[in-house]
Every structure is written in structure tokens, then in C-alpha cells.
Amino acid sequence: MTVRLRAHHLLCILTYVGRGYSPAFTANYDRIIEHLNAGEQILIVDGPDDICQPLIAEEATPHCLNGSVRERDRRAAGALTRWLGQPVEIGHLLTPDRKLLARMRTSFARGATRQACLGCEWTSLCSSVAGNGYAESLLTLTASD
Fold this sequence. Notes:
This protein has helices at residues 9-12, 23-37, 53-58, 67-84, 98-110, 123-131, and strands at residues 3-5, 42-44, 93-94. The chain is mainly alpha-helical and 145 residues long. A 3-stranded mixed β-sheet has the order 1-2-3, covered by helices on one side. The radius of gyration is 14 Å and the shape is globular. It starts with a strand and ends in a 14-residue tail after the last helix.
């Protein structure tokens, strides 16, 4: 399985600790993290992705369709492209490994990619997780090199 993620979710997965908008959302996110920890590739997509699916099913007007979220994707893609030195654009495949995870976490903790998080309701939780060295994060990439 290839995990389909929109650009700003590349940041969200760094600090995921098992909390979400609903039980269905959290259960789905847990499965996605399991796939990533098992070494599945990530396909960058435009708009709602695998993480968004429960919200699409549960809500009449899910926030993942809003222009502000698309703007978050644009800012995340630009910041990650600059920080990682590789394209983070629609249709691009990323192979997550511990080296990539370490680089992404470093950039996130330093604030280099956080402009994509402006206005997000999870910002304080994510800042806390990053501030504690990602000890609670469920993304470990244990099966990677």
C-alpha cells in the first residue's frame, strides 16, 4: 500500500500521538502510522488524502476541503522542499526512513517548516510533542533502514 498524504500532513505525522477529531479518525490515523512504520511509501496528493477520509465521511462540510487547508499544503510543500533539498510536490513519492524522519523532525522543532501550521488547532500539542523530543510520537519507522 502507498500512503496518500497531502503536503501539510507530512508535518502532522511527525507529532501524532493517537489523538484526533473522532474515534474513527484516530483509528484510521493509527492504521496509516502502522503502514508508515512498516516502510510504506508516501505519495503526495492534492486535496483530501488517506488521513482526511473519516472526516469526509463524517462531516457535511469537512475542513479539509477549505482553501485555508490548501494554503497550509502549499506552505508545507515549499518549506519541506527547501529544508529537505528534494521536491515535495503533487505526484512525488517519498520513501520514509529514519534519516528523512530525523531531518523532518529537526526542521519542525526549529520552526523551519512551522509556517504551514499557522491557524491549526493542534499547534500547542505538536509543539509540546516536538519540545519533548518526539518521545510520545507513534511514528517510529522501526522497519526502515
